[in-house]
Every structure is written in structure tokens, then in C-alpha cells.
Amino acid sequence: MFKNLMLYRLSPEWPTSAAQWEEALASEPFVECSATQQKSTGWVPPRGQEHGALVETVDGQWIARFAIETKAVPADAVRARTQKVVEEIEKTTGRKPGKKELRDLKDDALIALLPQAFPRRSQVTVWIEPTQRWLVMDVGAQGKADEVITSLVRVAGQGFGVGLLQTQQSPQGAMAAWLAAESAEDIPDAFNVERECELKGSGDEPAVVKFTRHDLATDEVRQHIAEGKLPTKLALGWQGRVGFMLTQALQLKKIAFQEGVFEEGAASKDDDRFDADVALSTGELSGLIADLIDALGGEADATAVTDQAPAAAPAPATAARPAPATVAADDDGPPF
After folding, report:
1. Cα–Cα distance between 189 and 235 in angstroms, integer?
2. Strand arrangement, sheet containing 252-257
3. Which of 15, 217, 221, 270 fits 20 for a cystine, CB–CB 3.0-4.6 Å?
4. Which pLDDT score, from 0 to 100, does residue 266 have?
């Protein structure tokens, strides 16, 4: 159910119940793009059932789903249609359209072509762990996460606050220490280093070294760390149950549950399968997130939240982690 995670912290004041969450999301339901609309966003039932609940409570966890639909018209098609109109104006009036008129003609061409464009829809699963006040999104790109946060800020009203989950030690500093370790005993007990990482140097044109399907407990890797290259990604395993890629921005990517973890949740009915998948996924990932926070020295400040998507400046490797940079979603294959 979850392939990528971004972690946020909710303020203590909101939400106080799943019913409050449901009421807020109901004010911004998803509606498909109209004929001349380029983009539409909103909340959809997480079970996929028409007119279903917008918030599902499973094993004490709250699950919602945010939909983003876009329609794109090829730029070449807009230019060709605009040029055709421009040529017609020049032929009939003997004049060339000015800059403002040309912009208007391009807008008109786009609107005329939009009804022919096919919509593309993506969805973001949103999980709230109410006891810890974690807001967790299954998303790999910061732009989509910002869309969700923007919607929540709009619908929640006064009392809503959200901020990136911050840790005492930055993930980059911790990953560097784990890769430089001479012994596996220097790595937190709950985790093991797998066989993939990316190291990046400093400067205007930093060197980048990538290891894939490669033993990382080597002098070669430790030498790169000693020379000042820092990890931006590192494949880790958690208690032999979950594999994932940790990034310098405390994002979890390429999440893969190990064989056998979900066997007890197998069910024939779709509803039963949804409940089982949510319960097992959130149960495993709650333990992983808690252990990861502990491995990074605990939370820096659980009360530091804002009423909008944060945009913190990057911090040094030994400080609290920076806000994540905008990145393209990675492939969904496991990192080991």
C-alpha cells in the first residue's frame, strides 16, 4: 500500500477526531476536470467506492486519499493553432499581432484544444497516526506533497498546524556515520545497511558516486566518506521485515515489505483486503518510523509546526534535517 513516505508533524490542536478530519475534507471533494480545465484536485474515498467515506479508520489509524487530475496539450499543437490564426489575421488585415494579442491567441488556442486532451490522474494516500500526531504521505515528489498540504490548510481552518518532522541528528550525518563504521555493532540494532547508496561531494560541480548491488562495508566506501563525500541516499533494512531507501531529507523511498509479512492479512473480499493491508502496513511502518527517529537522536521539537507547507533552508549535516528539495519520483523497485 505504501511505496514512498514523507513525514510531517501535526499540531496538538488539530485534528481531534476522525469525524473532524472527515468534515474538513468534505468541503473540498474531487471533481473531474471540466472540458476547458487544465487541473483539478480534491479528496476521494480511499476505498475507491463512489460516495464512500473520505476518511477510513482502521486499527486506530486514519486513512484518506487526495486526487490530482491534469490535462496537458502538446506545446507544438498550441503553437500550430496559434500560427494558423496569426497567418489569417495577417492575410485579412495586413498587420501582425502584438505581444499582448499573441499571448491572448495562445490562451485561446489552449482553451480550444483542452477538450481533446486526455486527463491523467494520480492519487496520494494520506495516513494520520493520531496518537503520535504524524501525518504521513505516500508520495515521492515534493510538488504533490505541497498540493496536499495546501488543500489541508484551505479546508482545516483555524487551529491547523503542520510541519516537517525534524530529528536531532540529520539523516545525512547519521548515514555517513553508519557507512564509515568499522563494525556492524556501530549501526542501530533495528537497522542494517543494504547494498545501494549515493554519495555526493561538495563544490560547484560535485562528484557523485553511486553503488548498486555492492557491499558497502568496504574501505573504498569509507575512503569516500573520509574525503568528504556525503550520502544522499542509503538502502536500509528494518528488522528483516521492511526494506527502504533513506534520503538526506528524511524521506523513505522504494519501501518493500519482506516476503511473509503480509501473509496473515490475505483476504478474499476487497473491503477485508483494504482493512488488512492498512492495518499491517501502518503497524509495520509505525514501528519503523519510531525506530528511525530514535536512531536519529529523537525529535528536535515536536511542537514546531506552521500553518503552511514549510520551506526551511538547508542545514549542515550535523544539524536538524533540511526541508526536502523538489525531486522526481524514483522507480518503485526495492533497494536491495
Report:
1. 16
2. 208-212, 191-200, 230-238, 242-247, 252-257
3. 15
4. 56
pTM: 0.79
How far apart CA 183 and CA 92 sit, in angstroms, is 81
**How does DSSP classify residue 20?**
H
pLDDT confidence bin for 42, thresholds 50/70/90: very high
d(CA 323, CA 226): 26
Give buried/exposed letters for 275-295 (b at 16+ CB in 10 A, else e): bbbbbbbbebbbebbebbbeb
Rounded to whole angstroms, how far apart are CA atoms 262 and 249? 28
Which residues are CB-contacts of 143 (< 8 A; sequence separation ≥ 6)? 326
Cα separation, 336 vs 212, whole angstroms: 8
Distance between CA atoms of residues 317 and 61, nearest Å: 33
Neighbouring C-beta atoms of residue 152, cutoff 10 Å:
27
> How far, in Å, CA of 86 to CA of 80, rounded?
10
Nearest to 178 by CA among 190, 166, 169, 188: 188
Spatial CA neighbour of 11 closest among 248, 239, 308: 308
pLDDT at 151 over 60: yes
- Distance of alpha carbon 153 from alpha carbon 91, whole angstroms: 51
Residues 6+ apart with CB under 8 A from 304: 9, 163, 166
